[in-house]
Amino acid sequence: MFKRLKDINWENWKPEQRATLLFVIKNGRILLIHKKRGLGAGKINGPGGRLDAGESPRQAAIRETQEELGINPIGVTFSGELSFQFCDGLALHVTVFRASDFTGMPRETEEAKPLWVPLNEIPFDRMWADDYFWFPYLLIQKQFRGRFLFDQDTMIDFELAETRDRDSREAKSNQMLSKPR
């Protein structure tokens, strides 16, 4: 079992699942969901899910938002990448996007209940623990990359860095935020 990020061989790490998150941020509010099923059921998050075969992360983020909320996001831009290693063996890579607008009316589905929240009232206590650390980058439109180690719902360790662009694959150690030990 992993106890810290340094116990993971990140050079050879391969996610078994690839997924997306997409956050609509408009007029000082963010559109979140109360997740009803799947990984993170019961938590507040953004719409998203696993990539289908042959689908790009951007395509998957848009499709998942359409399926979970019944809206079409507009102005979708890349925000960051998150790598999650769970102690039970699950390895998950998540590509995060933001959108500046949408068409349609957010509606509740079998998967999610929409929740508009003022940007200064994001309910981090009802979200995954990592969100607290990377959301500030999302909100100020800075690209980021993070690595997280979880034991079920408990975050054990993390590293987080701002990246200059999507192709930036290296995080300099002096730019890294780490969980206090």
Task: Walk me through what this model shows.
The longest helix has 13 residues, at 57-69. This protein has one domain (16-165): Nucleoside Triphosphate Pyrophosphohydrolase. Strands 1, 2, 3, 4, 6, 7, 9, 10, 11 and 12 form a ten-stranded mixed β-sheet that branches. A hairpin with a 2-residue loop joins β1 and β2. It contains two helices and twelve strands; from the N terminus they run ββββαβββββαβββ. The protein has helices at 57-69, 131-139, and strands at 17-26, 29-35, 44-45, 48-50, 72-74, 77-86, 91-99, 101-103, 112-118, 144-151, 154-162, 177-178. The two termini are 18 Å apart. The chain has 181 residues and is mainly beta. The model is unreliable at 167-181 (pLDDT under 50).
**CATH architecture field:** Alpha-Beta Complex
CATH top level label: Alpha Beta
Q: Estimate nothing, just give the exact number of structural domains.
A: 1
Ranges where pLDDT stays below 50 over 5 or more residues in a row are: 167-181
The level of helicity is: 10-25%
Cα Rg: 16 Å
Question: What's the end-to-end separation, in Å?
Answer: 18 Å
> What is the averaged pLDDT score?
91
Name the helix and strand elements from N-terminus to C-terminus, one letter apiece.
EEEEHEEEEEHEEE
Annotated CATH topology: Nucleoside Triphosphate Pyrophosphohydrolase
* Overall body shape: globular
Q: What's the CATH superfamily, by name?
A: Nucleoside Triphosphate Pyrophosphohydrolase
